[in-house]
């Protein structure tokens, strides 16, 4: 039996307007940022298999990446991720928290 050396790469990505990334050239939706991530991976020549790790909104982007290229995503790490209709559901359960976020312009 022969063993071949396996390697892995860790990449960090900042969505447009965050970290060291340029401001966004278009409106930022989860669909758009997931598409931007796929474009960044392709442009950098980084091919799967992928194990995306996403925190908060990054979890939604990771899930969309998997939906768009299921065969390339072989695992996923989701840490305290956001979810569909999060603020609508929270407003029903904890309206005071959502109201405070609206006052601070954190929730639309």
UniProtKB/TrEMBL annotation:
SUPFAM superfamilies registered for this protein in UniProt: alpha/beta-Hydrolases
Organism annotation: Croceibacterium xixiisoli
InterPro entries: AB_hydrolase_1, AB_hydrolase_fold
GO molecular function: hydrolase activity
Protein name, entry field: Alpha/beta fold hydrolase
This protein's UniProt keywords: Hydrolase
Ranges of residues in domain AB hydrolase-1: 5-92
Cleaved signal peptide residues: none
């Amino acid at each position: 039996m022969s063993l071949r050396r396996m390697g892995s790469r860790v990449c960090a990505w900042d969505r447009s307007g965050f970290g060291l990334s340029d401001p966004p050239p278009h409106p930022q939706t989860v669909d758009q940022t997931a598409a931007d991530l796929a474009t960044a991976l392709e442009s950098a020549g980084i091919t799967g298999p992928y194990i995306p790790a996403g925190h908060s909104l990054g979890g939604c982007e990771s899930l969309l990446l998997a939906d768009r290229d299921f065969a390339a995503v072989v695992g996923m790490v989701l840490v305290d991720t956001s979810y569909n209709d999060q603020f609508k559901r929270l407003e029903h359960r904890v309206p005071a928290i959502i109201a405070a976020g609206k006052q601070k312009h954190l929730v639309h």
